[in-house]
Design brief:
26% helix, 6-stranded mixed sheet, binds adenosine-5'-diphosphate, alpha+beta, OB fold (Dihydrolipoamide Acetyltransferase, E2P), 9 helices, binds magnesium ion, 29% strand, Rossmann fold, disordered C terminus
Length: 356
């Protein structure tokens, strides 16, 4: 494994006058050449973390290291990081070329070298034709690429991207997202990418760090987050539509009496219509049918009460509104205890489920 590039060691942040920290005891490492995505709902502290790493926000407690060196007290300029902000601003009176050159001029890079770097970034981001235009003459996606270019041109050792695609429409977002991933691979750059969008996190991240209310919930590969969420928050946050969370007490084949399983989680694609062989059956009625072309989402109200469930079926569904069906689980469900932590699926429930 590569050595760590960014290390957060028990970082805390409390804004002046606030009672509670907005970042609480954060420890994580970003390896050199890694693209790590931080995801979480709005207000969970993602931007605060990036701003602490960039040196734009003082660190209240803990240590921050970049390439092995403590940087808590270092000025932003001395940290060798480049940041792309959510509300990127280009200089409106400058051409694209001059916008790209600006960070180089600030660092007194010689003119010949400036020209070389601009040519390289323009080629990578397909800005060659646009170099003489002003920002007002660019589309949103083109402006976004210039903002990216202005950060990347510095060849910093760490790139921090704070929701850089949030101003783009959905189609462009997918396109620029792919370009960022490709660029990161080409450059072998260390990147910390922040988004509130779990789809973006899952498609972009080599590893994904999930945050809620200032605390790191889980850091893992997209696949592991999906297959083994560490707690109820991650279970509900990753996946669209979200995992169904059913109170264990509502199930007919309940987990063993001595089990601490309080919530049973089942992904929409793991619900299916029960057969006579299924011990675990949940009777529901079809509340709503959403046909999406390649799949159909069915919203189902359990007879025993509780929140509606979502079932995913490939293509068109044969089920109509108000149909009454019995549901079974297609794979071993997830279990969570009263605190919301993931626990092993109780063996007693496992054995009863497979009885004919
Ligand atoms: N300068 C500030 N002063 C006081 N509170 C702030 C400041 N900046 C952000 N916050 C608060 O800190 C929390 C985390 O904010 P932020 O890091 O911007 O979240 P995110 O980027 O995940 O949406 C929010 O509750 C926000 O209101
Ligand atoms: Mg933010």
């Amino acid at each position: 494994m590569n050595p760590p590039s960014v290390e957060c060691l028990q970082l805390c942040k409390t804004y002046p006058g606030a009672e509670r920290p907005v970042i609480d005891d954060l420890s994580l490492q970003v390896q050199q050449g890694e693209l790590l995505v931080m995801v979480g709902p709005s207000g969970c502290g993602k931007s605060t973390v990036l701003r602490m790493i960039a040196g734009l926000e003082p660190i209240s407690a803990g240590e921050l290291r970049i390439n092995g060196r403590r940087v808590n007290e270092l000025e932003p300029k001395a940290r060798d990081v480049a940041m792309v902000f959510q509300d990127y601003a280009l200089y409106p009176h400058m051409s694209v070329r001059d916008n790209l050159a600006f960070p180089l001029k600030m660092r007194r890079v010689p003119a010949a070298e400036q020209a070389k770097k601009i040519a390289r970034v323009a080629e990578m981001l397909q800005l060659g034709e646009l170099l003489e235009r002003k920002p007002a003459q660019l589309s949103g996606g083109q402006r976004q690429r210039v903002a990216m270019g202005r950060a990347l041109i510095r060849e910093a050792s760490v790139f921090l991207l704070d929701e850089p695609l949030s101003n783009l429409d959905a189609k462009l977002r997918v396109q620029v997202r792919a370009e960022i991933a490709e660029l990161q691979r080409q450059l072998g750059a260390t990147m910390l990418y922040v988004t509130h969008d779990q789809t973006e996190a899952m498609t972009l991240g080599q590893r994904v760090a999930v945050f809620n209310q200032g605390r790191l919930q889980q850091i893992a590969s997209p696949r592991e987050l999906y297959d083994a969420p560490a707690n109820l928050f991650v279970a509900g946050f990753i996946g669209q539509p979200p995992m169904n969370l059913i109170p264990a007490s509502l199930l007919s084949a309940q987990p063993a009496a001595d089990s601490t399983c309080v919530w049973v989680g089942v992904r929409p694609e793991h619900l299916r219509i029960a057969t006579a062989h299924d011990a675990q059956q949940l009777h529901v009625s079809v509340d709503m049918v959403e046909f999406l072309g390649h799949e159909t989402l069915l919203y189902l109200q359990p007879d025993v009460g509780g929140a509606p469930l979502v079932m995913r079926q490939a293509g068109r569904s044969a089920l109509a509104l108000n149909a009454r069906i019995a549901l079974a689980f297609d794979s071993e469900p997830h279990c969570f205890d009263a605190e919301g932590s993931r626990i092993a699926y109780p063996l007693a429930a496992r054995s009863t489920e497979h009885l004919p």
